[in-house]
Amino acid sequence: MKKQYLVLGFIAVLAAVWPFLPPFTVTLLSYIGLYAMVALGLVMLTGVGGMTSFGQAAFVGLGAYATAWVCTSPAAAQWLSFLPAGLYPWVGLVLGLLVTALVAWGLGAATLRLSGHYLPLGTIAWGLSLYYIFGNLDWLGGFTGMSNIPPLTVFGLSLASPRLLGVVIWAVLLLAIWALSNLLDSREGRAIRALKSGRLMAESMGVDTARQRIKVFVLAALLAAVSGWLYAHMQRFVNPTPFNLNIGIEYLFMAVVGGSGYLWGAVLGATLITLLKEQLQDWLPRLLGASGNFEIVVFGLLMLLVLQRASNGLWPILAGWVNRVLKIAPAQPTVSAQGAATLDQRQLPPAGQEVLKAENVTKRFAGLIANNAVHMDVRAGEVHALIGPNGAGKSTFFNMISGVDDPTEGQVVLMGQPMQGKPSRAFAALGLGRTFQHVRLLGDRSVLDNVALGAHRRGHTGWLASMLRADRAEEAAVLGEAMRQIDRCGLAAVAHTPAGSLPLGQQRIVEIARALAGQPAVLLLDEPAAGLRHLEKQGLARLLTQLRAEGLAILVVEHDMEFVMNLADRITVLEFGTVIAHGTPAQVQADPRVIAAYLGGDLT
Ligand SMILES: Nc1ncnc2c1ncn2[C@@H]1O[C@H](COP(=O)(O)OP(=O)(O)OP(=O)(O)O)[C@@H](O)[C@H]1O
């Protein structure tokens, strides 16, 4: 059985029972739908994109207040007098979305730069501020709120009946889930997922992480605003209470309890928390003999329990159980290696041409000189190795030539262009592919998905087209290209395996395949042989020899001397940040300074 049938079955059952549900259940389900919409945004933001927000309730408030103001204020009625009153809620929606997008963009630009605890703290600050703004503005009704909000009308049909409005709420929610699941299943979706593993890796794959983060943030805020808009027309009344920080925290509970990495986790979490809250509000005062918000205490304990026992939320547990019972096999994309030609192609420079050059590169950390006037170049069709004892400055140099850091003096030139001040993604765009000393893969995603991220820059389809599934031809080409590189690196047997479950040595090869999917002109490999067994090292050496023959420029930072001496055409040796030798393996091995630097270590 396929997963899609299960979703269609769920929709069919919901539609079939909807007309017969008691009014109270309809209202409850409508609330669940509204909350799930906000939690859906949090899944994208927190679970997928790795950014925590406590302030989503404030965006719900923006959506609700915008339409409340348009529909009830005399000033708005005067400006909109040329429109039939039935259209006011739609003007309210447009205004709500615009204001939310603007506010979210501004707040995002200010707070998304913050790392660690500062981002959640920033979201608390804006959650509080927007709540007090709603409550303190007289023209928004202050803390008393605004009433007499009209019901929605669609083509003259009034949605005053909660049963009809509930249909709209669930239709919007299901549509949002469909669009977001399409987005996540695309090139842009991979870029969003990559945000979670930190900026360094994603930028090196050509992803503009600042832009992606802000887009996800605005998207989550817009989902909250739509929920607020529907909420206002359902309640027909708004005041600041449902948009305060407590509710913002509840939305986060929903996403985390349901499963913050899963779109359907938002629906599950919203359902569980809403039902639980309803029951607890009934039972706890009776049990404790006093009234109060005791359910918050229970939620707190529940959150601790979920984080302890099911840190990915309840959705994966439920889905795993359903998959087992109904024998649903995990979906695997069908991939053909055709179509890769439709992606951007790079003309490799002729053999011998200088591709990457460091000129007089010096890097100082306070008093310490990590790199001292380093000169080196890498040419098309050669393997150049950079070696040196621990602490010699290899990683620092690697960071400089890959755009992670800027030299204090000197410059890096890539494909003839000076790169001072440019981010890693600019290096990727010019043809630099790289791997990492500490492997940086998305462990729970398949090898195929990880390698496909490497081809990110070679496609162009944006968010909207991806949401509408208009990206299928390009996506097939990206996956085809990823599969080609996987094959080439000898990883075909594990293409659909989660990358994190592979041995470290194989994960290093996945990183090489990912770099190759970007069709680089120069490949920087940071200790590629570390953790590889003897046969795997031989396989890697064969692959690099083949890539060299194809005209790639390869720079290897490596501690394994046997591997380096057998493979490299030229070797540069660093000690205390300074180049102490340069030449062929034979020349370097015979150099007394190199032998001294390695304190008699075996260089053969
Ligand atoms: N961000 C930093 N701030 C201060 N000092 C640093 C920083 N990064 C590196 N260093 C120092 O610069 C020197 C070179 O370090 P680097 O990591 O580049 O050496 P390496 O050759 O890569 O070592 P290894 O082979 O152990 O990885 C070391 O003394 C290190 O402590």
UniProtKB/TrEMBL annotation:
Annotated membrane topology: Multi-pass membrane protein
CDD domains from the UniProt entry: ABC_Mj1267_LivG_branched, TM_PBP1_LivM_like
Signal peptide (UniProt feature, chain positions): none
Cited PROSITE patterns: ABC_TRANSPORTER_2
Gene Ontology CC, one term: plasma membrane
Key words of the record: ATP-binding, Cell membrane, Hydrolase, Membrane, Nucleotide-binding, Transmembrane, Transmembrane helix, Transport
Any GO MF annotation of the entry: ATP binding
Compartments, as annotated in UniProt: Cell membrane
Membrane-crossing residue ranges in chain numbering: 29-50, 57-81, 87-110, 117-134, 154-180, 214-232, 252-275, 287-307
Main location: membrane
Domain ABC transporter: 356-601
InterPro entries registered for this protein in UniProt: AAA+_ATPase, ABC_AA/LPS_Transport, ABC_transp_permease, ABC_transporter-like_ATP-bd, BCA_ABC_TP_C, LivM-like, P-loop_NTPase
Pfam families, per database record: ABC_tran, BCA_ABC_TP_C, BPD_transp_2
Name of the protein described by the UniProt record: Metal-dependent hydrolase
